[in-house]
Design goal:
This protein is mainly β and about 250 residues long. The protein has no helices and 16 strands.
Length: about 250
Amino acid sequence: MSSPNPLHIIRSHQAQINCVAFSEDNERLYSADIEGWVTLTSTRTLRPLARWRAHTESTLAVQEWNESIVTHGRDHKLHVWSRTVQPIVVAESVNVERIVSAPPLLYSLDVNALNFCKFDLFAKVGENTAVLAVPNLIDSNYIDLWDLPARDRLHAAVGKQYLQESGADASNDPRLKLGAAMTVHVFEAVPPDQGAPRLNLLVGYEDGSVILYRREQDNRLKTVEGQGWTLLWRVREHVESGKYSNILRFVL
């Protein structure tokens, strides 16, 4: 069976594209490549709305959040840009790959991108704040949760109570040795025995394991060293390291 023919080919990158994302209303398409360039394309006109070099190294992820654009790069930076941009007006003959039109940069965070783990964002509908999940700044085996736009770290090194540090191989340490976090998904859910929603963290690891953690107390109370988080379950259905893509979003 032959492959279907594409309806349209958007030629807006000179380097390999490694991540794409649609806006919630499907009005905009984001694409990013291994050289750090991001293109914002209108899905109505299929013409570029913005194109800029967001990162000095490969872009790991791009996502629209309210009136902002979040990009995450291998340059250990997470940038939040304003989505308020004027559409680019170009003639049909102009090479889109050479257009540069960057949106305003609102703020940035230093992050750990050694293990290629992409950020995840949990934002309630209608609210202007979000919880950002990224690998811990010091140890890629653990996860940090940040408040945006305040850029305040809420929970540090989630998983440390259950997992050994990077490079450790202590036979007398009862904690698991799973390797670096490769993918992460943060969300809220109401526990069976409680009325208030709690933060949950689903993490895929280098050894093929997937673990679900749950915050046991008020989400607003800060934690360090992974304290205050309970490991609910762990499964290992993969025998090799994997990035799992977005499969974690459908595990529950």
